[in-house]
Write a structure and sequence with these properties.
By secondary structure, this protein is an alpha+beta fold. The chain folds into two domains: 3-26 and 85-168, FAD/NAD(P)-binding domain; 36-76, no CATH class. It contains two helices and eleven strands. The protein has helices at 36-44, 135-168; strands spanning 3-4, 10-11, 16-18, 22-25, 54-60, 63-69, 74-76, 85-88, 100-103, 106-109, 122-124. A four-stranded mixed sheet has the order 4-8-10-9, with no helix packed on it. A three-stranded antiparallel sheet has the order 5-6-7, with no helix packed on it. The chain starts with a strand and ends with a helix.
């Protein structure tokens, strides 16, 4: 079945594998918001939370040494951590009607372990559907999805041929 693309062109394929990966989604850093449990956890391990706007990261001898706050104070630090999310690279594929799911890590293509999506003939593989997969696991999963598709094509052809011979008898 042809599917229109965003630019008006149509894509025709018996099977389509989406292995487009993910991209980081960085937070808007006007200030990072923490829930109370996170605040309690930070306090319990001795990590202070300073609820002020950061205007600059101070670096001394190629190492982070402090955070300059908007009020002019500098707070010494040894490290700065910012959590990012991820988003599946699905731009341009909206017309396919693929389902996504969002979890604390980000938004990803919804597919089962074999790569089946909600759209027949469209498969997902790698971290576009599972953010926990590392590169080698993405490659392995892609190979498994390809084998699944290949087996389906081979056995589908064999079943069609068998049905055709039974009709002619």
């Amino acid at each position: 079945m042809p599917r229109p693309l965003d630019d008006g062109d149509e894509l025709r394929a018996g099977q389509l594998i989406i292995a487009t990966g993910v991209r980081d989604v960085l937070p808007d850093i006007d200030g990072v918001e923490f829930d109370q449990e996170a605040l309690d956890t930070l306090a319990a391990v001795g990590i202070p939370l300073i609820d002020e706007q950061v205007s600059a990261v101070e670096v001394t001898e190629d190492a982070i040494s402090g955070l300059r706050l908007a009020d002019g104070r500098t707070v010494p630090v040894e490290a700065v951590g910012v959590s990012s999310g991820m988003r599946a690279n699905l731009d341009g594929l909206e017309a396919l009607g693929l389902e996504t799911e969002t979890n604390p890590q980000g938004t990803f293509l919804r597919a089962d372990d074999t790569g089946h999506t909600n759209v027949p003939g469209v498969w997902g593989t790698g971290n576009v559907m599972d953010p926990d997969l590392q590169l080698s696991e993405c490659i392995s999963h892609g190979a498994r999805v390809a084998v699944t598709i290949n087996n389906g094509l081979i056995f589908g052809d064999a079943e069609a041929a068998l049905a055709a011979t039974r009709k002619s008898v």
